[in-house]
Amino acid sequence: MPRGRSDIVDQETSGAIVVQSFTPRQRKVRILATLGPASANAEMIAALHRAGADAFRVNMSHGDHEGHAKVIAAIRALEKETGRPTTILVDLQGPKLRVGTFRDGPVDLATGATFVLDTDKAPGDATRVHLPHPELFAALEPETRLLVDDGKLVLRVKSVAPDRIETLVEVGGKISDRKGVNVPDVVVPLAALTEKDRRDLAFALDQHVDWIALSFVQRPEDVAEARRLIGGKAALLVKFEKPAGVARLEEILEIADAAMVARGDLGVELPPEAVPPLQKRIVAAARRMGKPVVVATQMLESMIVSPTPTRAEVSDVATAIYDGADAIMLSAETAAGAWPVEAVTMMDSIARSVESDPDYYRRLHFTETQPDATTADALAEAAGSIIETIAADAIICFTASGSTARRVARERPNAPLLVLTPKRDAARRMGLLWGAHAVPTKDIGSFEEMIAKGKRMALRHGIGKAGAKLVMMAGVPFGTPGSTNVLHVATLTGDELRGYS
Predict the structure, then answer these.
(1) At what angle are helices 65-82 and 42-51 packed, to 10 degrees?
(2) In 97-170, where does DSSP find H-type helix?
(3) What is the 8-class DSSP label of residue 127?
(4) How far is CA 427 from CA 13, 14, 18, 430, in A?
(5) Is the pLDDT of residue 6 over 70?
(6) Nearest-angstrom CA–CA distance, 184 and 219
(7) Do β-strands 87-91 and 55-59 pair in parallel, antiparallel, or remain unpaired?
(8) With contact defined as beta carbons under 8 Å apart, do 436 and 430 qualify?
(9) Helices 340-355 and 311-322, interaxial angle, to 10°?
(10) What is the pLDDT of residue 9?
(11) Which of 38, 189, 293, 310 has the largest CB neighbor count within 10 A?
(12) In the predicted model, what is the mean pLDDT of residues 96-110?
C-alpha cells in the first residue's frame, strides 16, 4: 500500500478541522526522529517523514528558541500539507553536573592517585578542581562514586567536608574543562527542572508542542512539579536515565503519561550488562500500566557515519519491537549523522520485518496486561478477543482524550487501530502510541452516526473493504471524555462512500 495521501477531504468536518485522507503506516511501532544540524530544515524533515518518521524530537540541550521555532513551524507546515497529524516532542535538558576549568589545559589522572573536588573557584591542576555544585557536598558519602566524562574516569569518595571532597582515582585518564559528572549511588538533591528548563518549557508550551520529555527524574515529586507547570497543555514523558528513578519506577509511571528508556545515560551510571534487563523491566511496566514507552539511544549508532547498520544494531532494534515498545528513537543518527533518511528507512524496514514474523504477536503477549476494574478496560480487552474470534479487520475508536485508544493499544490487537477524535491535539499525541492511526474529524452525536462515520472513515483510509468486519468503540453520551461503554461489530458493504466526495 503506498504511503501517499489521496485528495479526498472529509466533507463531514467543520470549523478548524479539515482532514485529508492519508494512508496508515504499514507497521505498529512508531518511529521518533531527533532533529539537529543534519535535519533541521523543511526539506529534510519532509524526507524523514516520507521515510517513516511519525514523530520528531526537538532537543533543548542544543540550539536556541529562534531556531527551534523555525523547526516546529516546518513540522506544522508539513502536517498541513500531508494531512497526517505529526507529533512534536520537546526534550528538556535537565541539570548538568560539571567540573570547573584547569589552569594549563587537560591533565592526566593516574589510577590510584588522590584527587580533590572543592569549592575553590581557582583553575584546577592534577591534584584538584572546582566543583560548582554545593548540593553534592551535602549528598555524597564515603565509598560513593563519581563518574566523570560519561564514566571514562571513576573517582571513589574517601572523605567529605563542607568545602572539599577527597577521592581515590579508581579508573584514571585525561580530564579537561567542564567535563560532566554523574553520581549513580545517591539521590542528588537537585530539582529535575532548572531555570533554563523552565524557560524552555514555557517556550515549548507557547509553540503548542505535543509532548514534553523530562530529564534527570529521580522521584515522583519531580514529575508532579513538571505536570503542574504544563497544566494539561501537553503530555508528559519521563526519561528513565537515573538509577534513583528506576528504583521508583511504578510510582513515577503512575503520574506520567509515557516513559522513555534512556539507555545512554543508564549505561553511564550502571554497568552495561545491567541495562538490557532494565530496558525489559521498564517496557513491561509501562505496557502493564497502559503508558506509551519509547526505547532510545544508540539504536543504529553506526549509521551516523555509515549507510548501513551493524547486524547487532538491527537485532537490538528488533528486540525492542518484539518486547512491545510503542516507539523506537533515533538520536544522533538523524540529528547529526551523514545518513538521516537512510537511518529512518532502515528502522522502518526492521519494524516491518519483525511485525511480519508469525510469532510476533505471541511474543508481544509474553507481557500480561491485566485490565483495570473499569468498563472501558473490560471493553478494550473484549475488543481484542473479538478480533481473534471472528477475524475482524480493524478496531475503530471514537475518543476525545485518547484514553480509549491507549486502553486498546495496551492489548496489542492483531488488527489496524483507527482512532477518530474531534481534537487535533489528541490525534497528534498518538504519534507515540503503538498501532494508532489517528484522524481528527467532527464528533459524532448518535449511535447511528457512529456506525456510518466509522464505516466511511475505514474506507477512506484504506482500512477494510467490502465484507470487512469492524469492531467499534465509543462512549455514551457521545462527546463525554472517559465514558467508553459501547462496543459494536459492523460489516462494510463497500458502498458507504456513495454520495460523499
Answers:
(1) 50
(2) 134-139
(3) S
(4) 15, 16, 13, 5
(5) no
(6) 14
(7) parallel
(8) yes
(9) 50
(10) 40
(11) 293
(12) 95
Under DSSP, the state recorded for 408 is H
Nearest-Å Rg of the Cα atoms of the chain is: 24
pTM for the whole thing? 0.91
Which position has the grid cell 571513576?
Answer: 154
Average pLDDT, the chain: 92
Higher pLDDT, 17 or 277: 277
Write out the catalytic residue numbers: 57, 98, 239, 297
377 within 8 A of 404, measured Cβ to Cβ? no
Helices (H), 210-330: 220-230, 243-247, 249-255, 263-269, 275-288, 311-322
Distance CA 220, CA 197 (A): 18
pLDDT at 351: 98
Element (H, E) at 69: helix 65-82
Spatial contact of 109 and 126, defined as CB atoms under 8 Å apart: yes
173 Cβ partners below 8 Å, 6+ apart? Answer: 108, 109, 149, 152, 153
Amino acid at 490: A
pLDDT digits (tens, 9 = 90+) for 276-323: 999 999 999 999 999 999 999 999 999 999 999 999 999 999 999 999
- Nine-digit cell at 22? 492519508
